[in-house]
Design goal:
four-stranded parallel sheet; globular; Rossmann fold; alpha/beta; 18 strands; Alpha-Beta Plaits; 506 residues
């Protein structure tokens, strides 16, 4: 199979719209990691991602009759822009079906590139079904975002460029994985020409599409995927891409949100460009891989796959980057409610800076504070600090890896609600579309009372919600059934220590 793809890649038509993207050293990161880290700058393409390669190669290869009828695709971002650009350059009509939750800037970009944007459904799956329906009804050619040989070959030209640009030894190439088109194309070419080079996929921990498929030996469909790295939020690896990956991919590394944010900062420090979360996956993967497989003086290449990030998401990235780099600890600490307590606590921290301090008076005995503390020695220093504080008589709960604490509690510390009896707390993602809140609240005619509601949008199709509902035991099952009917993937957080310490009802 790799040999067939090598021939397809060598014939791929991409350079009418794509550039041979630079392969640049990440100097600061290389020094920190004691290895040569190089970035394949696909963010330098005119649509700021690699997706135009595969889209153009696929549309260029259509016969004249298909080109006259036009093409259709489903996408909420980079693939949409690639298809629209390819259609404009080739004189082919393009229709892009995008979820109604797609940020306006992406819809406007598709239209600016000459594509017809149709908003349909709340999710990619719904948009995709509608695109397939349009393809059948109107005789349009459907341009798949990843599971198509021509698309895979177009993306594979990146692998060809890497080997041409760096003839010296390469230890590994790290590739972000969503549906698998990028890693299939790159791995097929590199493994045929330089089989000694390791191909390592990188996925978010909450979207392990290829990781789980390789472990199972077959494609699996994830029940849900995280949306922070929305460019790789795919529930199932492609059929064709998985066939290639089984043969050509050596390993898959999983990274969390904080590690992705830290990688975005690393890329910015070296390039002064801002990668999107999916675009920074490969850099996060290198750091995670080296933590598990120490080495030095090796050449490691990361595919910087895209930079289509909404400006308002940068706040969230900045908040999480220091935790991802293990330069900040988030702690819940009980201190005495009396004058001088805060000063004494600060003195115990030594030369460390307090990055955050949230407190509200609750009773006359003790106060629960949520604080951020600067670290210089990573996880080991964090543990040493916690043990030091406990040794001085403080009750400490480590919140550094507590997702609810980082998404919600740190912004809403305000004390308990003793009269909120029978309160249960749930965390879920809320669709960013008109009427979503009204639809959610319409179900509350059943007698449920909202006792807490905290919502944060991160510049994506979904916001994050923490909600408190007063429910007696027999109502819990009814409420959770309602959540499932509405399509919300939820997590109950009633017993989360962050919630019990700072937000619990009576």
């Amino acid at each position: 199979m790799p040999r067939r793809y090598v021939e397809e890649i060598l014939r791929a038509r991409v350079y009418d719209v794509a550039i041979e993207s630079p392969l640049e050293p990440a100097q600061r990161l290389s020094e920190r990691l004691n290895n040569r880290v190089m970035l394949k700058r696909e963010d330098a393409q005119q649509v700021f991602s690699f997706k135009l390669r595969g889209a153009y190669n696929k549309i260029f290869g259509l016969d004249d009759e298909a080109k006259k009828r036009g093409v259709v695709a489903a996408s909420a971002g980079n693939h949409a822009q690639g298809v629209a650009l390819a259609g404009r350059n080739l004189g082919v009509s393009t229709t892009i079906v995008m979820p109604t939750t797609t940020p306006g800037i992406k819809v406007d970009t598709v239209r600016r590139l000459g594509g017809k944007a149709i908003l349909f459904g709340d999710s990619y799956d719904e948009a995709n079904e509608h695109a397939l329906q349009l393809a059948e009804e109107r005789g349009l050619s459907f341009i798949h975002p990843f599971d198509d040989p021509k698309v895979i070959a177009g993306q594979g030209t990146i692998g060809m460029e890497i080997l041409r640009q760096h003839a010296d030894p390469i230890e590994a190439v790290f590739v972000p994985v969503g549906g698998g088109g990028l890693i299939a194309g790159i791995s097929a070419y590199i493994k045929h020409v330089r089989p000694d080079i390791r191909i390592i996929g990188v996925e978010p921990e909450d979207a392990p599409t290829l990781h789980d498929a390789l472990a199972a030996g077959r494609r699996v469909r994830l029940k849900q995927v995280g949306l922070f790295a929305d460019g790789v939020a795919v529930r199932q690896i492609g059929k064709e891409t998985f066939a290639v990956a089984k043969e050509c991919v050596d390993e898959v590394v999983l990274v969390n949100t904080d590690q992705i944010c830290a990688a975005i900062k690393d890329i910015y420090d070296d390039t002064r460009s801002v990668a999107e979360p999916a675009g920074a996956l490969a850099v996060a993967g290198i750091k995670r891989y080296l933590a598990d497989h120490p080495m030095s003086d090796k050449t490691l290449i990361a595919i910087l796959s895209g930079a289509n990030i909404n400006f308002d998401r940068l706040r969230h990235v900045a908040e999480r980057a220091e935790v991802g780099e293990q330069r900040e600890a988030l702690l819940a600490v009980q201190i005495p409610e009396k004058p001088g307590s805060f000063l004494r606590f600060c003195k115990l921290l030594g030369r460390r800076s307090i990055t955050e301090f949230n407190y509200r008076y609750a009773d006359e005995q003790n106060a629960q504070v949520f604080c951020g503390v600067e670290l210089r020695g990573g996880a080991e220093e964090r543990q040493t600090l916690i043990e030091h504080l406990r040794g001085k008589g403080y009750e400490v709960v480590d919140m550094t890896d507590n997702e609810t604490a980082k998404l919600h509690i740190r912004y809403m510390v305000g004390g308990h609600a003793p009269n909120a009896h029978n309160e249960r707390l749930y965390r879920f993602m809320f669709p960013e579309r008109p009427g979503a809140l009204q639809d959610f609240l319409s179900g509350f005619g059943r007698g449920w009372n909202i006792s807490l509601f905290h919502y944060r949008n991160h510049g994506s199709a979904y916001g994050r919600v923490l909600v408190g509902i007063q429910l007696v035991r027999e109502q819990r099952r009814e409420f959770e059934s309602f959540m499932k009917e509405q399509g919300y993937a939820y997590t109950e957080e009633t017993d989360n220590p962050a919630c019990r310490l700072f937000a619990a009802g009576g």
